Amino acid sequence: MLWLIYALLTAVLVSFSTLMEKKVLFKEHAMEFSAVLALFNMILALPFFLFVDFSKITLRPLVYMFLASIMAAVAFLLIIKAMRHMEVSSVSPLVIMGPGLTAVLAFIFLGESLSVFEILGIGLLLFGAYILETKDRKHLLEPFKIIKESKYIHFILISILLYSITSLISRVVLAHYNLTPETYIAIIHIFLAINFFIMLAFFHDGIKGIKHGMKNAWLPILIVSVFVISYRFFQANAIKLARVGLVESVKKLSVLFTVIIGGEIFHEKNLMKKIIASLIMTAGVLLIVI
Fold first, then answer.
1. Cα 245 to the center of its chain, rounded Å
2. Arithmetic mean of pLDDT, 159-168
3. Which pTM value belongs to this model?
4. CA-to-CA distance for 254 and 13, rounded, in angstroms?
């Protein structure tokens, strides 16, 4: 049952990380926050190099990881932009749709089959998302209009797509090139930091953004970084002891924690409806990953 402890710790830390991110983003610019967080993540991930077997690292998996890091960086920035402008109890349930899209992409590109339970799970994810965006029972098509017109929901959907692709790449790198999770975590965080520094230089104010973010919010961003590196470490250890599906199902409890706690802390609207939608979508994830 040690895997369950690791998985529960992962879920709790993911929730804490999300709530802290939302608190910081009330005042901090999304790009500056992301770049400073990437810097702290890189620094905290450096000790993982002590466990890296450099003899197993070849050029091809490095290229794959760098491509994955580019998509992951863009996806994270889009999520952060959405979280800055939307309620956290609305963002978190939408993000949970990732496993469904990953299953579909694995079916299309990796030739993996979709079971009846996975198809039902994808259906529950879509139904939960529909309930989440329903504002008025009299207008049944309103959620589709909201999804169509909200650029921040578009950001979330694009980020889910990008994260799903990076999940497939990560699966290939770890399974086919025999790299350990420690190796992946150590290298990917260096690539992510490089990507955010480049984006900051071209699309924001460069090193000034780092200095501004460090000056205004270095401590809460550092705390977020500790949460991020910690939950990734616990998740990697949980996966060593149990099936990925079991670990992912427990990890998704973070969405319920975030919706309930975040909704109360930030006094967000329609909290009960969002909790119901989150429960439906969590059930959908369980059907997909178990």
1. 16
2. 83
3. 0.82
4. 8
